[in-house]
Amino acid sequence: LLDDDAIVASDSGTIATWAARQIRIRAGQRFSLSGNLATMANGFPYAIGAQVAFPDRQCVAFVGDGGFQMLMAEFATCVQERLPVKVVVIKNDTLGMIKWEQMVFLGNPEYGVDLSPVDFVAFAEACGGRGVRIDEPAQAREQLAGALAMDGPVLIEAVVDPFEPPMPPKVTPEQATNMAVALARGEPNRKRIGLTLFRDAVAEAAFPAADAGIAARVAGAVGDIIGRDDEKGDGHAEPEADPDRRVDR
Asked: Cα separation of 185 and 31, whole Å?
């Protein structure tokens, strides 16, 4: 769907994972994100700067809703300056990377990561631009193609599953265990996350890939610990204390 000379800019957070895995950059295109500093909210201004420098090229910001909300007022700048930047906002109403790091690195349930749902389409229209909402996978390609072809600045709100984990290329046993411990400690969305992990494990079995087994390993650890807790009759039972490991509460 991207032009042959498109310039794409992305943000830090889980959006960087989805960009790396789903956007196939071709020769002649350019892609940028804050890979070293991991700065949030960089994708949109990157795209604005690129559009000013290259007014005849397609410039797309592929960003998360958390980062975009930090500088979303600049969409009004795009309207004012007639910059035809296309902004794809992946909306899951959460600070996703923080959420998964809390569970995978600390073994803690998610805390303080929910975002208030913003109607980005209404916001874009209030700024004088255009907004498109994508919430049906079957219609996503057609809607996205139409939005990218529109004149002027366009904001595309793409609604996604907030419980889809951004799996790394390799999952260590410790990370899988931490994830399971976080769910057992009272993660409020543990059932939904568990179902997502098992669904991904089934998909891996049906369509083997280079990273096959990632979801299966995590799902196995999750099921093992949750199963032991349920046998005790307490779905939120605490694991045995580890004096060498600090857990924030």
From this structure: 40
| Cβ atoms within 10 Å of 5's Cβ, excluding its own | 14
C-alpha to C-alpha distance for 79 and 46, rounded to whole angstroms: 16
CB contact at 8 A, 107 and 182: yes
Rounded Cα distance, 126 and 80, in Å = 13
Residue recorded with tokens 């990218």 = 148
- Contacts of residue 26, defined as CB under 8 A and 6 or more positions apart, other chains included, come to 2, 4
Report pTM: 0.75
Q: What is the pLDDT of residues 7-40, one digit of tens each?
A: 999 998 889 889 988 899 999 999 998 877 888 9
Q: Half-sphere exposure (CA, 13 Å, Cβ side) for 228?
A: 14
| The two three-digit tokens of residue 230, written as one number | 């349920």
